[in-house]
## 1
Amino acid sequence: MKKLYIIVFLLLLKLFSAQNFKIDTADYAKRKAFLELYKTRGEQFNKALKKKYSGQEARELVNVFTNFQKSVTEDIKDKMYSFDDRFVSYTKDRVNYIASKNPTIPTDFSILIAKDNEPNAYNFGDKTLVVNLGLFAFLNNEFEFDAIISHELAHQTLEHTIKKLIAKLNNDKDKKLEVSNLKRSGNRYDKAFELYKSLLYSNMKQRRKNEISADSLGFSYYKTTGLPIANYVQSLQLLKDFDDKKEDSIDVSIYKKVFNIPTQSFKEDWLKMEDFSKYNYKHYQEKVSQDSLKTHPDLEFRINLLKKNYPELATSNLNSQASPQFSLLSNLAKERLIPNFIESEKYGQGIYNCLAILEDNPDHKATKYYLGLLFNKIYDARKTYTLNRYLDKIEPTKQSRSYQQFLSFMWNLGVDEIKNIGQYYEKSEN
Ligand SMILES: [Zn+2]
């Protein structure tokens, strides 16, 4: 579950220009080349599985990974990933560097850069490493980046995904793992990802164990590489700070400021909200474990355990310098914030983030232009009755009050009103 709808590093956002936003048709050739390589590697990986495991177990594992690779392929075709060489080569270089000092790490990873603003990285288990653009935007330097990568590489060497799959297959033998039939959720881009998450979160206790062993092996990889060890813990601390941030909020006055336009006056009715007071929030919150709401659970525990197990961390110094190369990538990733929402068709969240930017920078041209684009997308969706796909429903138990106010506003708008807003703002770039 996503806790934050406004990405917190937004505050650090340098003002960007909309000129950097192109739908990435130029990526087509790279995407095609990647898909060919990905297919070959997937087949090799599945073949190795067949060798290592036998009988029913091998068949089921291969079946799951084959279907999983198909969903990833579909997600790639759906442009969920960026094939910007700067991010891909950088990540590849870092993996190779860490592997060069730690010979047990494989080097034939398929690297995917997700157009996702959440600071995170994943290892799908078949030597596919996914790094979110949001991770580049969020981290301060390459040491923190290498720390996260080391941790993900450790998951691969420890074969955590395969082991989890085997446990799951043994647990629900009669129930088939319905990988390929995974239902599409509100957003059509979540397919492979939702599957991976359902696997990851299926057993919290085991997950915690896996995280701890990946932290530990990852630390050893990282240390061997000669990187400043304090930064390893720092990377976890930053992710923890991200999770701990208070609920997102934008002031209700922003609606009148942004949506009272020369071609259409603001209507107070747009802000009307349904009365959700019948929901007992506390009751709901107590029912859900706090950790399960977090993107990165257990972080406090894991940080303390690392400090306990590696006393040398107490006397080591943080290196807070960033190389020009990392800074460049980090800034590029920040510029992609709103375009990422557009390309991954999270139009509602994109508009919400535009409003957050406009609160601090009311005249920011690029943001106004993106706002226009996003409203045009919402208009198209409204006309074809597909708005549900791009704009969240109101869920009082899961969303902040501010986000509920936003969703109410969006759902209250009439189709022509949406059109007028889109038309007005799309001209902002000029
Ligand atoms: Zn992990």
Note: The first strand starts at residue 81 and ends at 82.
## 2
Amino acid sequence: MSADSRAGRLKQLAREAIEGCRERLLAVSDDLQRHPETGFREHHAAATVAGWFTELGLPFESGLSVTGVKARMTGRSAGPAVAVLGELDALVLPGHPLADPVTGAAHACGHHAQVASMLGAAVGLAAVREHLDGDAVFFAVPAEESVQLEWRRELVRSGELRHLVGKADLIARGAFDDVDMAMLCHTAGQGAPPLSVGDSHNGSVVKKVRFTGRASHAGSSPWHGVNALKAATLAISAIDAQRDTFRDEDAVRVNAVVVHGGDAPTAVPDRAELEIVVRARSLEALRGACAAVDRAVRAGALALGAVVTTESTLNYLPHHQDPALVELARANGAALLGPSAVAAGRHRGASTDMGDLGEVMPVLHPFASGATGDAHSVDYQVTDHASAALDPAVLMAWCVIDLLNDGAGTARSVLAARGARRTTAQYAALRAEFDALTCYDGARGEERGPEGEL
Ligand SMILES: [Zn+2]
Ligand SMILES: [Zn+2]
């Protein structure tokens, strides 16, 4: 039997195994959608995954970065390890019809379907594992979304977390050290093609900016005050003044909100706080946009003579997929759904922590259909669990079969083309470039220690 027809036979077996579990897999996607949990708190979803791994007889670890669950399926011989991921977490969206009435959590990004597709891939690959020359790793990962950041910052300060989002934390802990490449299939919003392959995402940096001025009577002695709110609004204007300088191809986004602007108009505000998210398509563009924002923030402080403290945290690295894995997904998607069902990906202004993983190893991140509404909106819901969970399960199982069958030659060539893997230490150094706590004294026009206040 030729290698191609052998792979074809294995794919057929995997698909039949997944179809045999169809109703249960659809039920998992539906159940998790009705039990939304936010990042690092996905205990119901993690228990569901652990139950499936137990049933499949796969050894697994749980509690990775609080709620992550990771199983390993060894093949007939040692070889590359390919991970199939499912993100566990929901957003906070209390107005969503399926929101948790107590926590306000809601699955408005379709991650529940990813968990079902990861489990489905495990079911499919279990049927052919004796033919694989390498390992398949099934990994339910926590906290892809950036929500409840203040609580997460507390966990970082207390040492329970190293980073604010799941994959970054898992990488830093070495939870991907025994994985060579990774894939997941995300559900897209309404109107999406059945499958899109090769999309990229912006990286993002979050800046918490606090202006400290001096309070005084706003009516009788405003000249004794230093108005922190005006420093903050000047900073926003200075950011806006730079928008023309951002190149279209860099897809820069800078979004700022005032989270504190003073306590009462009778006193000159002595404290104002901004939260700013800076996004861009490449590391270089992200560096440039962050520098522009940092200058703008200092300009506000300089003009008013206020002190500004900026806490910068790299949230996600820019996300780019491995071209060979994208081609594999395109070919398998065309075989599964028909060539016209597969669209070429585009660049998206949003961000994902698959970007972080993609800096460390080759990653694949196709988008499937099956949802109504726009992602992250109250209208977003997976209504077609077969398209959102079942087809992606087959797609990913087929990609893993192509990668690991017949001596795992395809997986080895993906790794060879990629070159040396970025180490955990190199990843940490890249992150550290963006993570900073700085303080600028506008009255003196100079930097000072981060603890410095007027
Ligand atoms: Zn999302
Ligand atoms: Zn998502």
Note: The domain at 3-201+319-422 is CATH 3.40.630.10 (Aminopeptidase).
